[in-house]
Please model this.
Amino acid sequence: GDSVTQMEGPVTLSEEAFLTINCTYTATGYPSLFWYVQYPGEGLQLLLKATKADDKGSNKGFEATYRKETTSFHLEKGSVQVSDSAVYFCALRGTGSGSRLTFGEGTQLTVNP
Amino acid sequence: NAGVMQNPRHLVRRRGQEARLRCSPMKGHSHVYWYRQLPEEGLKFMVYLQKENIIDESGMPKERFSAEFPKEGPSILRIQQVVRGDSAAYFCASSPRGGGAVSYEQYFGPGTRLTVT
Model:
């Protein structure tokens, strides 16, 4: 079945540092890939997505590229801010799984001033 | 446009009681999904519903759990005879459509945090 593996957290960075959160997946066919962000006490918000190989999703300075050869969708940001502190979830929607999303375990990011 | 609404936000139940969680999708959305987030884990799919139909319940525990999405009113996730292991955050998401080749975004509610004592 489909699965998503994220780098273990938590991750603590200083403001303006470079961020990478690794995400790899297992799925048949050509899944769509997503990054969601969850701020404390809130639901998940879609951060970015990519629907086919080599697509790059981007939003709010965050980027992730759909790499089919390495089955990866790593999240990056060049300069993090304190306001980026949240939990980040990588997810996929498989071609054979209907509409449901399969999530990774989540990575807690804390950015210190 | 109001987002996905869930209530209650926090629910405390004693073992053996029933829990009812409600989800009102975004306006114009007719597809609802329920996910469960156990402590220190990611979200796990439970069930996918359209109005008056269960489309995919492959993630629902076989016993004590049920879900509905009536023609009128919110979607309800019901847990009968709750046990401590049911303590989790339950998230609802909605989308305008589902399935097919296009990836329709799912919009998530704030979640209901269930605590079983």
Notes: Chain B touches chain A at residues 4, 6, 31, 33, 35, 40-45, 48, 55-56, 59, 91, 93, 95, 98-99, 103-111 (CB under 8 Å). DSSP finds no helices and eleven strands in chain B. The two ends of chain B are 37 Å apart (CA to CA).
